[in-house]
Amino acid sequence: MNDGKGADNLMEEQIKEKVKDVFGRNADKYRTSEIHAQGDDLALLVEWLEPQETWTVLDIATGGGHVTKALAPYVQTVFSTDLTAQMLENTANHLDSLFENISYVIADAEALPFLSHRFDAVVCRIAPHHFPNPEKFIQEAARVLKPNGKFVLIDNITPEDPKLAEFMNQTEKLRDDSHARCLSKAEWRGLLRSSGLAESKSLDRKKTFQYPTWVARTTESEEQVERVKQHLLSADEETASYFSLKVQNGDIQSFVIDEWMVMCTKKEN
């Protein structure tokens, strides 16, 4: 009989295997996805970090390689990592002809295969909502950072209202079974503080999902698409208003979620 910890570990492994399956099958969609590849947060990332040519940078859960591509021109080395081998291979095939300073490493964000205090900067963008243990991810990011190193987190977040948070997470889970949970800003700030990461800059953002392309990216059947649609259409007036749900002739056109971008510095002690 499994004890509680054993059951939790099994569930975590199942989530990670689902992540590998979903992202392995959809690797090129994430490389070419407009919302992933062309977000103005990539330029802002460079502006905030002020990367130096001597730096060694870690890109956690690179996905389509967009953070790696944005930072590689400015630094000595980027370690581009992902849990999904097919995703990383697709990214490497795309970037190999552009840069010679990228190393690709298959890595779990919650158990990074690097020594402590090795990186000048660590970045993770639009991925932590897939991590079953976000506290382990933050601890690992802090561990591998050099003292005074910079950490940037960019991810979808939930509203503080529990009802709205539940609606958002259920929406994501219905569309993508590899979704774990979006956290709120308050939750992220607690994890950052507890790992010795001092917030220096942050930005609240709104992100619009064009529904047809968003729902098609990870759904596996028309039945799944229909479940997502019916869930969104079931939103009460307050929820539909918060997420700016746009419906025309019974078809969902778009909706808007919250995204948070934060930069922290690792404390020396």
From TrEMBL:
<protein>
    <submittedName>
        <fullName>Class I SAM-dependent methyltransferase</fullName>
    </submittedName>
</protein>
<dbReference type="GO" id="GO:0032259">
    <property type="term" value="P:methylation"/>
</dbReference>
<dbReference type="Pfam" id="PF08241">
    <property type="entry name" value="Methyltransf_11"/>
</dbReference>
<dbReference type="InterPro" id="IPR013216">
    <property type="entry name" value="Methyltransf_11"/>
</dbReference>
<dbReference type="InterPro" id="IPR029063">
    <property type="entry name" value="SAM-dependent_MTases_sf"/>
</dbReference>
<keyword id="KW-0808">Transferase</keyword>
<dbReference type="GO" id="GO:0008168">
    <property type="term" value="F:methyltransferase activity"/>
</dbReference>
<feature type="domain" description="Methyltransferase type 11">
    <location>
        <begin position="58"/>
        <end position="153"/>
    </location>
</feature>
<keyword id="KW-0489">Methyltransferase</keyword>
